[in-house]
Specification:
With 322 residues, the chain is mainly beta. The chain has 1 helix and 25 strands. The longest helix has 4 residues, at 128-131. The radius of gyration is 18 Å and the shape is globular.
């Protein structure tokens, strides 16, 4: 990264070795990003929901773990795909508690007074069995008209439910937003539309991962969400491509599970997401080396995409924050 001529440039990845399933918030003049529980092995050791911080989305430093101890409302499992949002003066982290192939994973809530943590567990919001949706992981929190909502799901439909006023339990009926081909939901509002992002394909097969980010949009938060071809996102082959794997052998496989879109001082939109270098897709201990990638979103006819619909491999102008 270089700051000659007052123009900062950067090249992917912006953080390594691992920050899988990222979420990002801005507090004051700093960004905080969080990721799935992982063991970075010789490249950094074990992290229980790692938190990193940056002034510019490009230069990141490790803060530590955002949780002091693992929640205990399940006998075993990992804390995956956190979603952090400032709610009033506090910071809410919705998280997945699951193992691979877990018959009853769930979504929990932890709350902190500071963005770096420690986040104190509040217990489960719901389990898959309680909410009636298999593989209930990958939470995303959004507020609309003074109400709190949670969107979630992983390859058994993307769903939305209203939450209680304290954000700790579901309230009312759940609504299906998208089909069984997606996980990692995120919604972004722009120009009267709600854009529903989701990831399709395999996340965690190293260089063979097929993960990619797809999008649909709606005039209403509750849908229906349609892709650029007008296909309902509940259909299996729906979704307009935002970013997929590089064709180059020196590129990235499995780019996906995007964080929140960040708007810089120039009004440009930026997407953080993870991917694996095809040349170095795993850590020495076998963990998927899901590094943090950053790219600018370009809007074409009202639809978002990364340039060439693949991660950038060369130096680019960085986000501008004044």
């Amino acid at each position: 990264m270089d700051s000659g001529n007052d123009t900062l440039t950067y090249s992917n990845p912006v953080f390594e070795p691992v920050l899988a399933d990222p979420t990002v918030i801005k507090v004051g003049n700093e960004f905080f990003a969080y990721g799935t529980e992982d063991n970075w092995g010789k490249e950094g050791g074990y992290h229980l929901v790692p938190v990193i911080k940056s002034p510019d989305l490009v230069n990141w430093e490790v803060v530590g773990n955002s949780m002091a101890k693992k929640p205990n409302w399940k006998e075993r499992g990992g804390i995956w795909a956190p979603d952090v949002t400032q709610v009033g003066d506090q910071f809410y982290m919705y998280y997945s508690f699951s193992t691979w192939g877990d018959p009853n994973p769930g979504i929990g809530l932890a709350i902190s007074e500071k963005p770096e943590g420690p986040f104190i567990d509040q217990g489960p919001v719901f389990t898959s069995e309680e909410i009636g949706v298999k593989n209930s992981i990958d939470p995303f929190y959004i507020e609309e008209n003074g109400k709190k909502f949670l969107i979630w799901g992983s390859f058994h439909g993307l769903f939305m439910t209203e939450l209680s006023s304290d954000g700790k339990k579901p309230k009312g009926d759940k609504i299906q937003l998208a089909g069984n081909h997606l996980e990692a939901a995120y919604v972004f509002k722009k120009d009267g539309f709600y854009y529903l992002f989701g990831s399709a394909g395999t996340c965690c097969e190293g260089a063979n991962s097929t993960y990619q980010v797809l999008v649909g949009r709606s005039k209403n938060l509750s849908g229906p969400y349609l892709d650029q071809e007008g296909k309902n996102m509940k259909e299996e082959d729906s979704g307009t491509l935002v970013v997929g794997r590089n064709e180059s052998d020196h590129g990235y496989a499995g780019p996906g599970h995007n964080a929140e879109i960040v708007t810089d001082s120039k009004g440009q939109h930026w997407l953080l997401y993870h991917g694996m270098s095809k040349q170095k897709p795993k850590l020495e201990n076998g963990t998927n080396r899901r590094v943090l990638l950053l790219d600018k979103i370009q809007w074409t006819d009202g639809w978002p995409e990364i340039k060439n619909k693949e991660p950038s491999l060369k130096a680019k102008d960085a986000p501008v924050f004044k």
